[in-house]
Design brief:
Helix content: over 70%
Distance between the termini: 98 Å
Mean pLDDT: 80
Strand content: under 5%
Strand order of the largest sheet: 1-2
């Protein structure tokens, strides 16, 4: 009995922190449909950023260490001057943010948990985006709007698939998920992150207008100085909205995918759930990040092993232990090492030296590049799919804790549409019939000369003498009588009219 009680307590503890539900995230994230959607979104985002880099390359590039120099100047309160270089803005920002994400995941692996390293990586991630927004605002806005359009469609579809799979063990197709995402695209997925940003922009504009009034001599000192508490309240509102965007922003798209609601409902739920259960939110988020870090490490090691084995074995065939090596400036290397160079000991791909290749080797080098980058892209697609699936699971858990809603409850558009006609079909039973239809359903009065028996038979036949009270009242020229009298009283021969 004591062992059974201990087992029940342990199971209840696991269920309380949501661990049994969070573990399901891996199975949801590796679904091929979600991986394909995430990979296609990554390709589109990379293509959009590369296109912007191409357009901005006419004005020159920036130095490869520009973000590190910007962060150092911010920390030391020193003036910052951006150095020119050959790198594109998107290329620099993407590589820096990638290193920050890997730093957060490395700090979240259980054997070497490091809150300091995780916080440092998160702050550097913010600084990298702040550099792009502060010094290249037009580029930042175009990149942000394009990326939001791409991920609102494909990220919303991934969240929809995760919601249906988590709640009902159903796996919608890519076509069904994209159809739902398109239907709720602008009013739901796209506008959900924009709602808090719009409120923040409005409050900042009001504060700036108040600062302009404060510059007016005498009048500004009297009015703005006396009402400065409103500026403090505005600062509190901006801070609250910013915290809600950063903490509850991951719940916006799962809300739309699970409830079929609009952007305002997504924002209100994301903000209220996180503020109502802050510690539960922190526990769910930490467990999900730790789980994601472990899965990411294993997936990365698996991909590294697969690519390394492929490269080593094929390289042996192209050189036969150094017998067919090609002489280069860096020394003798195999043909595959020339077509497929790597940087460091990781799986980072490095562009080959195209000038060292013969014209017909450009095709093989390009094909190898595409295949290797596709495998690396699948690794990052897995991380994106894990993020959206984990956010959806956290939303379901917080909704259960705050609203008491079952985990199986999810908006199903098809079942809702099917149930609507059935509900409508039962309504006409309680509505009164029209006089024309009632008159048509009544038996015609017997013409003169008919016998009493025929009239009595027609009135006493089952199914015809029974009429609802609404029908008897709505028929013009017909006497009102209760249903019991009309059913139990047989027609009397004295009431019949006989012709003289």
């Amino acid at each position: 009995m004591a062992q059974d009680s201990e087992t029940q307590d342990r199971a209840g503890w696991v269920e309380t922190i949501g661990l049994s539900q969070i573990i399901r995230t891996l199975g949801m994230a590796i679904h091929p449909s979600k991986l394909m959607l995430a990979l296609f979104a990554l390709i589109l985002t990379f293509g959009w950023g590369s296109l912007l880099d191409l357009l901005w390359s006419t004005q020159g590039g920036v130095h490869s260490t520009v973000i590190d120099e910007f962060i150092l100047s911010q920390q030391l309160a020193m003036p910052f001057e951006e150095r020119d270089g050959t790198s594109g803005l998107f290329d620099i920002w993407r590589h820096y943010e990638q290193r920050c994400v890997e730093g957060v995941l490395a700090a979240a692996i259980p054997p070497g948990l490091s809150a300091g390293l995780a916080w440092n990586s998160l702050s550097n991630m913010f600084y990298g985006t702040w550099w792009l927004a502060r010094h290249h605002i037009v580029f930042f806005l175009l990149l942000s709007i394009g990326s939001l359009l791409i991920w609102s469609l494909f990220g919303g579809a991934i969240c929809r698939m995760a919601a249906m799979e988590f709640a009902r063990e159903e796996k919608p197709s890519i076509k069904q998920a994209l159809a739902f995402s398109r239907k709720n695209f602008f009013g739901g997925f796209f506008l959900a992150p924009c709602v808090p940003l719009a409120f923040i922009a409005i409050m900042m504009l009001l504060l700036m207008l108040g600062g302009m009034v404060l510059r007016v001599p005498i009048f500004g000192d009297l009015v703005s100085g006396g009402a400065f508490f409103l500026a403090i309240m505005g600062g509190l509102v901006i801070t609250l909205l910013s915290v809600g965007l950063l903490v509850g922003g991951s719940l916006f798209w799962p809300t739309v995918a699970s409830e079929g609601s609009d952007a305002f409902d997504a924002f209100s739920r994301g903000l209220s759930y996180t503020l109502s259960k802050p510690w539960k939110t922190v526990v769910y988020a930490v467990l999900t990040v730790m789980y994601a870090a472990i899965c990411w490490f294993l997936a990365k090691m698996f991909l590294f092993a697969a690519l390394s084995v492929t490269r080593v074995v094929v390289a042996i065939g192209t050189s036969w232990f150094g017998l067919w090596n090609r002489e280069t400036e860096a020394g003798p290397i195999s043909k595959l090492e020339l077509l497929w160079p790597v940087s460091g000991s990781g799986i980072s791909y490095q562009t080959p030296e195209w000038s060292q290749l013969v014209w017909y080797e450009h095709f093989s080098a390009f094909a190898i590049t595409m295949y290797v980058l596709l495998m690396v892209g699948l690794l990052w697609a897995f991380l994106c799919s894990f993020y959206f699936s984990g956010s959806t699971v956290i939303y379901f858990l917080l909704r259960r804790d705050v609203d008491g809603t079952d985990l199986e409850e999810v908006y199903d558009e098809e079942r809702w549409d099917e149930s609507a006609p059935q509900t409508a079909s039962t309504q006409p039973v309680t509505q009164p019939a029209s006089p024309a239809s009632t008159a048509a359903s009544q038996p015609a009065a017997p013409p003169p000369g008919k016998s009493e028996s025929s009239t009595g038979a027609s009135e006493s036949s089952p199914g015809e003498s029974k009429s609802s009270p609404s029908e008897s009242k709505s028929s013009p020229g017909k006497s009102e009588s209760s249903p019991s009298e009309s059913e139990s009283s047989p027609p009397s021969s004295d009431t019949s009219t006989k012709p003289d």
